[in-house]
Design a protein that fits this description.
Radius of gyration: 25 Å
Helix content: 25-40%
Shape: globular
Number of strands: 11
Strand content: 5-15%
CATH architecture: Alpha-Beta Complex
Oligomer: single chain
CATH superfamily: paralog of FGE (formylglycine-generating enzyme)
CATH class: Alpha Beta
Number of domains: 1
Number of helices: 8
Largest sheet: 4 strands, antiparallel
Order of helices and strands: HEEEEHHHHHEHEEHEEEE
Strand order of the largest sheet: 1-4-11-5
Structural class: alpha+beta
CATH topology: paralog of FGE (formylglycine-generating enzyme)
Length: 289
């Protein structure tokens, strides 16, 4: 009996010498985000190791952005509010003639789920800074950073794990039934002219649109077909701002099929002002405190 008691005491001392392991805290990402796993990004002969991160499944919407502006105004941060405001007048500056649609695009509930456009890159960065704080309030055990993605991060995520694919869903713009995967300027044969002397191909105006004053518009941020990572509209819809100054990727609803390729040259490189063709998507990284 004495020996048994001694063994229990020894066991108690042995066990008490260990610290009880606490389960790791789990970060709960907002619903609008998907996780982009770690992997390797290839750009020609160069390869880059990419750490995993979260990214918004669609572009930042009008509803998301109105919430941000509301908080700035409610806090009396009017100087920041003025910098962050949506420049709806930019629709007309780029030739859009439907004044009612342009005026309602940001404010009307019918467009809540459409991507916010006509804001500057400075405004997008302000939104990201505000969002970091808002998410940390709900996740006090984590340091959260939300920002615009770098070009490498954006291209890695847009490719969805497909090696060397020109588009987020593979090699083609259409599925087997002829339906387009993306929102872009799909030019038909009636738009192509070939010079009989030089053989040069040129694009002619779509006169039905010119005379009616109609132009294409973005589609909802979460629409069309997602890539394998769950990201929508990385090609087409609206060009997406990058962390690099004056840079975008993906092309817009006003871009051709060639110009919405993942590795296509930036059609809006060097942009300074708000544009109806440019929006943004947020990247999120998290670290336990």
């Amino acid at each position: 009996m004495i020996r048994f008691f001694s063994l229990l005491c020894f066991a108690g001392i042995f066990i008490s010498g260990f610290t009880t392991l606490q389960p790791r805290k789990k970060f709960k990402a907002p619903k609008a985000y998907v996780y982009i796993p770690s992997g390797t990004y290839s750009n020609g002969p160069e390869q880059y190791a990419m750490q995993g991160f979260y990214m918004m499944s669609g572009e930042v919407t009008n509803l998301h952005y109105r919430e941000f502006l509301y908080h700035l105004k409610a806090a009396g941060r009017m100087e920041e509010y003025e910098k962050a405001r949506v420049h709806s007048e930019a629709w007309a500056a780029f030739g859009f003639k439907d004044e009612a649609a342009a005026r309602n695009y940001f404010e009307h509930p019918a467009y809540d789920e459409y991507p916010v456009v006509n804001i500057t890159q400075e405004a997008a960065r302000m939104y990201c800074e505000w969002l970091s704080t808002a998410i940390e309030v709900k996740n006090p055990d984590f340091d959260v950073e939300t920002r615009l993605p770098t070009e490498k991060e954006w291209m890695y995520a847009a490719r969805g794990g497909l090696k060397d694919a020109p588009y987020p869903n593979g090699q083609y713009l259409q599925n087997g039934q002829g339906k387009y995967f993306y929102n872009f300027k799909a030019l038909g044969d009636e738009s192509i002219h070939q010079d009989t002397q030089t053989g040069t191909l040129t694009v002619k105006p779509d006169y039905a649109s010119v005379f009616s004053g109609l132009m294409a518009y973005p589609k909802p941020s979460v629409s069309s077909m997602p890539n394998a990572f769950g990201l929508y509209n990385t090609s087409g819809n609206v060009a997406e701002m990058l962390q690099e100054d004056g840079r975008t990727k993906g092309g817009s609803f006003n871009s051709t099929g060639y110009d919405i390729r993942i590795d296509a040259p930036d059609s809006y490189a060097g942009f300074k002002d708000a544009s109806p063709f440019i929006g943004f998507r947020v990247l999120l990284t998290v670290k336990e405190r």
